[in-house]
Amino acid sequence: MTVREAFPSAIRFPATNAGRAQLAVALLVIYVCLFNGLNAFGLVGPDEPRYASIARDMAADGDWITPRLHGEPWLEKPILYYWVAAVGYQLFGDGETAARFPSVTGAVATLLALGWLAFRFHGPNTAALFVLAFPSSIAVLVFARAATTDMLFASTLALAMAAATPLLVIEQPRRKFMCQMAFGTALGLSVLAKGPVGVLLAAGGSVMGALLSAQFPRIWRLASPWSLASFGVVAIPWYLLCAAENPEFLEFFLISHNVERFLTPVFRHQQPFWFFGPVLLLGLAPWTATIVATLHDVTTRSSGRNWRGSPSMFLTGWVLFPVIFFSLSQSKLPGYVLPSVPAAVLLLAHVLASGIGNQTRARVLGLGAAASMGAIAVTFLIAPGVDSAGVEPGAVRPLALLLGTAALAASYLGYRRQLRATVTVSALGIALALWQLNTALMPRLDPLISSRVLAREATALTAGHQLRSFDLHRTWHYGLEYYLQRPVAEWTTDVPQGTVVVTNLRGMRSMQLEGASVLLLQDVSAEALIVRIDPEGERLTHR
């Protein structure tokens, strides 16, 4: 067997210097966007430290059935994130890299699966542009680097979509049973990642895609015995085992955190009906301008004869259905729209690839991508948000300079109709801006957004005394407990002298009004002060 036979054209290395350079840039973009700086800042928000604590404890105590937060069952989410993160803790040790490992794994799996799908149905140009556009899109940059369930869930649906596409758009797909098993397996993983909503999104996306591509009679291929069997083997055992150990699990999880979350605003995440439209546009940046050409392409296909059996029309269903479904929900968070992003980026990459060789289209698409980059650069140039968080004015302007330079280069290349180079420069600009953000700005922002520095300083100042918290926002409280690796009790008036308390300015004043003499030890951030109950401290009295 020759080398050419062993490595077919789909996977052979580029033979030209230009091809090797493009491959090197793609690998650099993937590395920086998905792997670089995962521990540049600590765990943020209320979800990251809670999920990470559960996974770390799972890796330590070996209970792979019941998620537990500080020893107590935590049944709000299924098990898949905790399993993958627990493996991360065993591989990488204690740290943010392990906690964010599931999201990175999901992003890489999506990149590989949809890269293959793009090559299989649209050719090497679409695949090459997808590999650049997917990791550098804002939605992926944010959620692939977060210790949450969103990216992992979106990746399981992307895998299901990749398996479903040949079944729906090819009249006689080869190894049909393998695609059906892959679809069922991915669907089972989606249920382990987020719950029954995985089945609803996959079914809805497939039905809508089948209708748009005029292949509805083939939809039953997805419900074959192979699909159902593999789904059951993957999804059902853990639910049965967890319900056996925790009788309240099914009602608590399925009713409270699925049905009630969708039908009622019980979790106070209310947003207008149109909320996910702007979120999706922002999440697809810097490729947002390409949406206009994509919509035109989809409209043209739907009005002509080439929409029948079109992979693009089938993928359009997977883009639209999650947006429509969650727009009807009474609870809306930005991450809910993430399952639409992989298919949307693939469609955008296909439209970009269609401009290669078409001079007019190449110029329009290239200048559109450059304009999106320029808009991001201007946003960083004028944004006041970081200054208000405690960082001096202009701290993010170096990012604007780098992105602005990339936008100018992309404008030049776009005007010259060099569309592939325009996309490459734009993706590289995003990656280098992220690298600069991780190395220069995030370490300075860390004390303002994460409890990592707070926990380290509080430990150093405790010196054998008790540590309590008071009136902390749950973001800071959960983070503090994660980094201290134990629960932190609330301060009360009967705690002994010398107790160190983590609080904020409002909490410190409340403690003083309760009669405590408080000595300020360290001002970590506006939301995190370290004080000590001390006879020489300040005390306020009621007037």
Helix content: 55-70%
Query: N- to C-terminal separation?
Result: 92 Å
Measured on Cα atoms, how large is the radius of gyration? 25 Å
Going by helix content, strand content and strand pairing, the class is: mainly alpha
Number of H- or I-type helical stretches? 23
Order of helices and strands: HHHEEHHHHHHHHHHHHHHHHHHEHEHEE
C-alpha geometry = globular
**Sequence stretches where pLDDT stays below 50 over 5 or more residues:** 1-11
Binned strand content: under 5%
Q: What's the average pLDDT?
A: 88
- Tally of DSSP β-strands: 6
> What can be said about the biggest beta sheet?
4 strands, mixed
Strand order of the largest sheet: 3-4-6-5
What does this entry look like structurally?
With 543 residues, the chain is mainly alpha-helical. Among the domains are: 109-354, no CATH class; 452-533, no CATH class. It is 64% helix and 5% strand. It has 23 helices and six strands. The strands form two sheets. Strands 3-4-6-5 form a four-stranded mixed β-sheet, with helices on both faces. Strands 1-2 form a two-stranded antiparallel ribbon. Helix 5 runs parallel beside helix 8, helix 8 (150-169) crosses helix 15 and helix 10 (197-212) crosses helix 15 (311-327). The longest helix is centred in the last third of the chain and has 31 residues, at 419-449. The chain is globular and about 80 Å long. The termini are far apart.
